[in-house]
Specification:
The chain is of the alpha/beta class and about 270 residues long. Helix content is about 50%, strand content about 10%. About 25% of the residues are buried.
Length: about 270
């Protein structure tokens, strides 16, 4: 039932975006962005009419349950497409939803999200019709810094070239690259020491039936409004990653660096379960 409600909200959000599309043209002509501030006042009035305490309660801070790692694309209304409220989602976005270890902004957000905010779920969400994915499949120099950013996606294409080149239709090939790019970003999360450390610290002390933070690979379709979870066997992928990237051993809730060359049976605490 909940799934049907969420899907209905997705469609409603997509339809709403299409209905408001003319505002984009108005904004371009609005020198001082007066429309933005007028809309803000209307929004505050609507929200407080429904719940007079909706904003004052945030004086105590925030307690989100999801870290959303997504694309900067303007067609993705993160909270609306999931039917969630203000304060439910901690968000970071970039071109083509990439997780890159030397991106200090991304790494800082991840660290703050799971160590300070104790967020239990991480969603990495790509989307079909992604301009960054399309650009990375072109033999064109998009010039730095954009070209440097797209190189990671080009590298992902290289790693999966046999599968991708076998797809004759360019649009279908790009859709598959969108999905693979999400999976590779999830794998990058696994490699991150702070995530491994937090999960190790949560072992044996969490009150959930999973070990947080749990990673979810998802794709959004802006032409339909639907959010889907990718059917990926991350545990199988993890078996190949552990000997190289695992840095912590299970010690019953205490964080401890894994001795060099030693492996834990079953992988790093069934990382993606």
């Amino acid at each position: 039932m909940l799934k049907k409600v969420i899907l209905a909200l997705c469609l409603t959000s997509a339809a709403g975006l299409a209905f408001r599309m003319p505002q984009a043209d108005m904004l371009k002509k609005d020198t001082n962005l007066d429309i933005v501030f007028e809309n803000n006042k209307k929004w505050v009035a609507e929200m407080t009419a429904e719940d007079p305490e909706i904003f004052s309660k945030f004086q105590a801070g925030q307690n989100p349950s999801i870290l959303w790692i997504g694309c900067s694309d303007s067609r993705i209304p993160v909270d609306k497409l999931m039917g969630l409220d203000i304060g439910d989602i901690f968000v970071i976005r970039n071109v083509a939803n990439q997780v890159i270890s030397h991106d200090l902004s991304m790494m800082s957000v991840i660290q703050f999200a799971i160590t300070a905010l104790k967020i239990p779920h991480i969603i990495v969400c790509g989307h079909y019709e992604c301009g960054g994915i399309k650009a990375s499949t072109e033999n064109v120099d998009h010039a730095p810094p954009l070209e440097l950013w797209l190189r990671k996606i080009r590298d992902t294409y290289r790693l999966h070239r046999f599968e991708l080149d076998a797809i004759e239709d360019p649009a279908s090939r790009q859709r598959r690259l969108v999905e693979i790019n999400v999976i590779e970003s999830c794998i990058e999360l696994y490699k991150t020491g702070v995530i491994q450390s937090v999960r190790e610290g949560n072992a044996g002390v969490t009150d959930t039936d999973y070990l947080p933070p749990k990673i979810h690979a998802c794709v959004y379709d802006p032409t339909t409004g639907y959010l889907e979870k990718l059917p990926v066997d991350f545990n199988r992928i993890q078996e190949n990653l552990d000997p190289i990237y695992k840095m912590y051993e299970h010690t019953g809730g205490k964080s401890s660096a894994a001795p060099s060359g030693e492996k834990e049976k079953g992988g790093f605490l069934s990382f993606f379960k």
